[in-house]
Specification:
alpha+beta; Immunoglobulin-like; 17% helix
Length: 220
């Protein structure tokens, strides 16, 4: 999710949920609890009031299957104080097995998670090695590839955006508010997908490609 919240109306009182669709409020504990709290409280609440309601949230709706955040940072952020990535199973019905975890934009390697099982409602921690750069405000991406055991569409992938908060802020440019990490899309994958017209097959090939790439890059 790429959002410039500085231009929105009352930014200190606005929450952003990536993957939150109409009619899905009751399918996500975060959304249900936040809306209920805002409706029934007599106090003035802003995005800093409750740490369990971060301003930027990747939806934990069961349809999203997986959710990921770092162990010692606010959701959506990463710093040198983090030691592992926590992956949760959002499903209320299906167990998960993690195929691979791949980071684009940081030079870190995750311990091999190949086929680690996460039961319904469970979570696992995957330690990583490498250094977080001494800078803040830069975006990076982490992709989790997984198999949802027994589901109609068992193979899936979800990419999470994280902002590095680990030093001096990168200068803000109002014309280009989203600061990239300098990593471009994989040229080889882009070329491969150009020969595949069907979106479904593109997603399948992307998952397989990213899984193999992650496994190779994480070899120590």
């Amino acid at each position: 999710m790429e959002v410039d919240a500085s231009t929105c109306y009352l930014p200190e009182y606005t929450w952003f949920v990536d993957g939150f669709y109409h009619g899905m409020t009751i399918k996500s504990d975060y959304n249900t609890d936040l809306i209920t709290t805002l409706m029934y409280t007599d106090d003035r609440i802003d995005v800093h009031t409750y740490k369990e309601f971060p301003q930027f949230h990747a939806d934990t709706n069961r349809c999203q299957a997986v959710f990921a955040h770092f162990d010692n940072s606010t959701e959506g952020y990463v710093s040198s104080g983090d030691n592992s990535l926590i992956i949760e199973n959002c499903s209320k019905k299906y167990d998960l097995r993690i195929v691979s975890v791949y980071c684009n934009g940081l030079e870190i390697k995750f311990d091999k998670p190949f086929m680690k099982k996460i039961p319904v409602g469970g979570r696992i921690e995957i330690p990583f090695s490498g250094n977080i750069p001494q800078e803040s405000g830069v975006k990076t991406e982490i992709t989790v590839n997984y198999v949802q055991i027994g589901a109609v569409t068992p193979i899936g992938s979800r990419t999470f955006d994280f902002t590095v908060m680990n030093g001096e802020n990168v200068g803000f440019d109002s014309d280009n508010p989203i600061i990239k990490n300098g990593s471009d899309n994989d040229a080889l994958l882009t070329t491969i997908l150009s020969f595949i017209p069907q979106l479904g097959w593109q997603k399948f090939v992307t998952i397989i490609y990213n899984s193999l790439k992650a496994l190779l890059l994480n070899i120590k």
